[in-house]
Structures are given as structure tokens and as C-alpha cells.
Amino acid sequence: MSQYLKLYFAEDNSEVSGQGDFDNAVEFTLNATEEEQDDVELYAEAEDGYKGTGVEVKPTGTNANKWRLALTEAGLSSASWGAKLELGTVEHGSGGRVNFFVEAKAEDNEDPQIDSSVLLEVSGVVEATS
């Protein structure tokens, strides 16, 4: 994740862990035999004094094709698995945040596992606002 763009859980405003740090990672517990899916709402926000333009979030890693992103929960059903999501301009504060949803799925051919292979990569152009 960018030094100036961060992801947060919408439920409690806690920061999502960065690469290699799983203290507060986006995680799902899914039953593969039931082919379960679950989602969580996140938001992107810029650090104070910065803004990001052309911001995108993309799942990367071995099982990125089992994650999908959308700006609304209803939009998840038509989102493509493994595709990037364009957030546009992200600024600081509640008015500058961009909320979005992340969904993961399990498939019935999977063995039970703890999969830490998927990362949410944030990219865009960041500039100082002052």
C-alpha cells in the first residue's frame, strides 16, 4: 500500500494491514463444500495534506481470481473476479474517502487452508495539496 494512501475497514475505521503484516488483514472464513462467499466494506483515504488521482485497487496473488471488488455491495454480483476497481480521486477526511466492497469465494474443490497469498494493491498518482 502507498505511504500516502491507506485502506480502512468501514465498520470500525481501523487501518488494513500492509504487505507482510497480518495484524489487521482482510480475512474471510469460508466453507468450501458450501461454496460460500462473503464480503466486507472498506474505504480508501489519503493522508492529511495529500490527495490521490486515478486511484485503483487490485487483488493480486495466487488466488486473486477468487476476490472481486465493487463500489457498492449490489455491484459485487456483476463485478469480475480478480479485476481491478477504479476509485478515482481519493482525499483526506470523511468527504474525501472512497468506500468500496471486497468479496471472496471458496470453491468445492479446495482443501481447507489459510490463504495469505492475496494482496490488495493500491495505485495512483499522489500529490501534496498544500
Considering the chains and any ligands shown, give keywords for the structure.
130 residues; mainly beta; 4-stranded antiparallel sheet; 3-stranded antiparallel sheet; elongated
Structural class: mainly beta
Element order: H for helix, E for strand: EEEEEEE
Number of strands: 7
Coarse shape: elongated
Kindly, what is the distance between the CA atoms of the first and last residues, rounded to a whole number of angstroms? 22 Å
The main sheet orders its strands as 1-2-6-4
Number of distinct helices? 0
- Rg, Å, rounded: 15 Å
> Helicity level, as a percent range?
under 10%
Main beta-sheet strand count, sense and barrel state: 4 strands, antiparallel
- Overall domain count: 1
Strand composition percent:
35-45%
Short description:
With 130 residues, this protein is mostly beta strands. It has strands spanning 5-9, 37-46, 50-60, 67-70, 85-90, 98-105, 119-128.
